[in-house]
Design a protein that fits this description.
Number of strands: 12
Number of helices: 11
Largest sheet: 7 strands, parallel
Radius of gyration: 21 Å
CATH class of the largest domain: Alpha Beta
Order of helices and strands: EHEEHEHEHHEHEHEHEHEHEEH
Distance between the termini: 28 Å
Length: 312
């Protein structure tokens, strides 16, 4: 019976993980890493490995019988793909498992900022109802979706249902986006025209600090920025400065360049912000889908099928 090493918990009870593995991979046995969050010094004869965000060193790949790494997450920037290719190790991820959950978080942050939810909650607790702020409706707003992959499309569908106009920017245009009424344009034009900008790009060498002070300066003073993708997409110092100077009206962040953000970091004290602790994907439904997809990737690989490969 083949063994599958799980480097760290997958966000749900281990009993559920064991059960789903037994159903999807009945001829495999799970092995839990005793030092969760770090990679063992040797893999021995192990052929299959599951990780969430724990790196697997290239030297470990080269000196083992490892055949496949199933990344139980959308992002895989912590995996040395060159070393994997050199070692003949397949690498898969689980795209799209949390698209609906993340999209709902985007709308939550947008509505929270538009309706000044944080301030209103405070006023209720202080019995200062007469100071209740005026908010804005979401309906009729122009929403710029930056990146129209799984999460971007799910987000676009929700905003469309609220009666918003959709603009899009993406390296590859998605026909489904235009079919639902979305219109693609250059980034600066999208930023200038949008009331809400929502980021849905991967973090790589081309997208680090994708949004800096100059881009923020092209946005409307009444606009808000939502980032539920990767913290490194936005220069957080620039964003804090833009908020302090009234360059844009607000920002909702589920992700940060350093997580958790250090105490005293400037962005934490910027005005008109709403934060969540990188929890957009953390719903019972999404985490269950993630577990299933993680083991489906291994099953596909063992059957000779290509599914969610990121090393090709």
């Amino acid at each position: 019976m083949d063994e599958v090493l799980v480097l760290q918990d997958l966000g749900v009870d281990r009993e559920l993980v064991e059960s789903r593995c037994g159903e999807i991979l009945p001829d495999c046995r799970l092995v839990w890493n005793p030092d969760s969050g770090s990679c063992p010094g040797s893999l021995g004869t192990l052929e299959y490995l599951v990780t969430v965000d724990t790196p697997v060193p290239g030297r470990l790949m080269r000196g083992s019988n490892l055949k496949m790494i199933s990344v139980s997450f959308t992002g895989y920037e912590f995996i040395d793909l060159d070393a994997a290719r050199d070692s003949g190790v397949a690498v898969c991820n689980v795209p799209g498992y949390a698209s609906q959950s993340v999209a709902e978080m985007v709308v939550l942050l947008a509505l929270g900022l538009l309706r000044k939810l944080k301030q209103s909650d405070f006023l209720v607790r202080e019995v200062r109802w007469e100071e209740a702020p005026k908010g804005f409706e979401l309906a009729g707003k122009t929403v710029g979706i930056v990146g129209t992959g799984h999460c971007g499309m799910a987000t676009a569908r929700l905003f469309s249902a609220f009666g918003c106009r959709l603009l899009g920017y993406s390296r590859t245009e998605n026909e489904k986006f235009t079919t639902m009424g979305g219109r693609y344009m250059k980034l600066d034009a999208l930023l200038a025209a949008s009331d809400i900008v929502s980021l849905h790009l991967p973090l790589n060498a081309d997208t680090g600090d994708f949004i800096d002070y100059s881009q923020l300066g092209t946005m409307k003073e009444t606009a808000i920025l939502i980032n539920t993708a990767r913290g490194g997409l936005v220069n957080q110092t620039a964003l804090a400065r833009a908020l302090e100077n009234g360059v844009i009206a607000g920002a909702g962040l589920d992700v940060f360049s350093s997580e958790p953000p250090p105490i005293g970091q400037r962005i934490l004290y910027a005005p008109n912000t709403l934060f969540t602790p990188h929890s957009g994907y953390r719903t019972h439904e999404a985490l269950r889908r993630k577990v299933d997809a993680t083991f489906e990737n291994i099953r596909a690989f063992r059957e000779g099928r290509v599914l969610n490969r990121v090393d090709l």
